[in-house]
Structure of UDP-glucose 6-dehydrogenase:
Amino acid sequence: MRITIFGSGYVGLVTGACLADVGHDVICVDIDSDKVAALNDGQVPIHEPGLETIIRHNLEAGRLRFTTDAARAVEFGLLQFIAVGTPPDEDGSADLQYVLQVARTIATHMQEYKVIVDKSTVPVGTAEKVNACVSETLAERDATLAFDVCSNPEFLKEGAAIEDFSRGARIVVGTDSDRVRQAMRECYAPYSRLHDKLIFMDVRSAELTKYAANAMLATKISFINEIANLAEKLGADIEHVRHGIGSDPRIGHHFIYPGCGYGGSCFPKDVQALARTAHEVGHPPQLLEAVEAINLRQKDQLFAKLESAFDGDLAGKTIALWGLAFKPNTDDMREAPSRALMASLWAAGARVQAFDPEAQDECWRLYGERDDLSLCKRRDEALEGADALVICTEWKAFRTVDFSVLKKTLASPIVIDGRNLFEPASIKQAGLDYYAIGRGDSL
Ligand code: NAD
């Protein structure tokens, strides 16, 4: 099947690479010519396990190519996927300018029937806007061409994107057209062999399903963080509580890990956008607003703990920071808790010595050269001369730390763990003052 994908970011690249890998003929189009040139050379601009190998393999096999030539790309595929960004507008609603720009591009160049597949996360009603935009542009050209618009939201997680795309729990398609159903079945047939993972529904329900999924996951995180903060005040250990509630199959163990708040390019913006939509239809989104407010407060927890540990005076202190990415196995720092912490530390006059296995380059791109930031090449280098250690991301490599090295290297023996990586008793036994999230000892 010939497939065109607009946008070569996380979603577009993974979609393009995976669809080519199962034998489809794929062209990916992006407006960023440097990115396109690098990708045609097999260089992948994001860190996503397994992605580079699949892209190189399919470039060599001739099933995948990257271009900035929109006319050629529109001509190529029956399916025209839209996988461009939908960043938050000033009021929290999703900014649809990139999605609608692609819709206009498709309508400007199409010469025959196309299925426009919206994979970007977009508010309910966007397919209708895309439809109107394509119709208008076609009318300007005096062209009467048939087309369909469907919704196919993406549920992949950064860091496990290939696995999620290839073996995800479900593939949601919103459409009321048999022709689209048939085309989407053909597209996803290789992923749906053992049992039918395709869930067809109307377009509005599909658009809402994506927001509902992310809002549910964000709610689980804010819920456990709320209970963790309570546990801290009550002298209980959230890790026992988590195990205790997760064992109930109605609750389950997934996504109830306490921490320093959720980040990334999706949860914060999608919770905000859904809340915005709710306001627009006159339904005050009480739960969603609480989820967001709890998360913002949680991102301040590590700084608040540090402030207490140093009696409110962090000026001139050097803080070792392990973990810059918003979660492990990615170099993505969008809305990462590490960024909120660094901003507060800098405002308080402290220096940061940071280490992350993958996000060093991204951190450099975001902040550049600064006197109050050193990016260290090794985990333990970040500890040298530091007054305290803070952990923001649960990279596996941080779990295997020798506590005696920590004790020896840190100027004061303070460890603030935003991801509950260690057993409090063992780390305290090594002479360190250890503060985690919701584990009894409050600071
Ligand atoms: P991204 O910012 O990583 O990539 C977007 C790409 O689109 C960029 O390369 C940009 O240059 C390109 N682009 C912009 N305008 C274009 C145009 N007119 N034509 C062609 N290319 C254009 O975005 P992303 O993280 O891949 O997210 C894309 C969408 O998918 C968003 O709506 C997001 O919410 C959703 N989503 C993201 C994830 C995730 O984990 N990142 C998961 C599920 C859904």
User: Anything to note?
Assistant: Residues 6-12, 29-32, 35, 83-86, 98, 101-102, 120-121, 154, 156, 158, 265-266 surround nicotinamide-adenine-dinucleotide (CB under 6 Å). The radius of gyration is 24 Å.
